[in-house]
Design a protein that fits this description.
Blueprint: H1 13-38, H2 42-65, H3 72-84, H4 91-98, H5 103-120, H6 122-127, H7 130-157
Helix pairs in contact: 1-2, 1-5, 2-3, 2-4
Length: about 160
């Protein structure tokens, strides 16, 4: 099966089409999960995912065509912030519809996609050996415990009683 997203520097019509197909599939699955899990209206969630997908497409296009060495995530973030700023004509519309899309429903679909991607390169992962598994577990555990420690310190500092 060919990759839906090619990593080429130039975005061809075929590459954009693949991004659009991927974002449509991603959006539909997210909207269904959002409706089942959070009871948000499907039409509102679909408009919200459409906004997020459009911002993503623009960010990817900017990364490939602007002469700066800047990641698409930065472009996507800046576009999202600018169109949602108070006082912008798009602010109310964007905030209303994007708020109808729960982060957890997006993350669930994204992690499923990453899992499928890992499954495709499982032989490469196995070739890294047991040391890579140990390092991966340590990194994940350290990140979790580090975040928990910081959260605990902030909660105690703000007056929330420690358990």
């Amino acid at each position: 099966m060919p990759d839906l997203i090619d990593g080429s520097e130039n975005v061809s019509v075929h590459g954009i089409f693949n991004w659009i197909v991927l974002l449509i599939i991603f959006s539909v699955i997210t909207v269904i999960g959002n409706f089942i899990g959070y009871k948000h209206p499907m039409t509102d969630s679909l408009v919200g995912m459409g906004i997020l997908s459009l911002i993503t497409l623009i960010g990817v296009w900017l990364e490939r065509y602007l002469p700066f060495n800047i990641s698409s995530i930065l472009y996507i973030s800046v576009i999202g912030i600018v169109i949602a700023l108070p006082g912008m004509p798009t602010s109310d519309f964007v905030l209303y519809y994007v708020s109808k899309v729960e982060l957890l429903s997006i993350v669930t679909v994204f992690l499923a996609y990453v899992g499928i991607g890992m499954g495709k390169s499982w032989d490469e992962f196995k070739a890294l050996g047991w040391r890579a598994v140990v390092v991966t577990i340590l990194v994940i555990a350290s990140t979790y415990y580090g975040a928990a420690i910081v959260a605990h310190i902030v909660l105690v500092a703000t007056g929330v009683p420690a358990i």
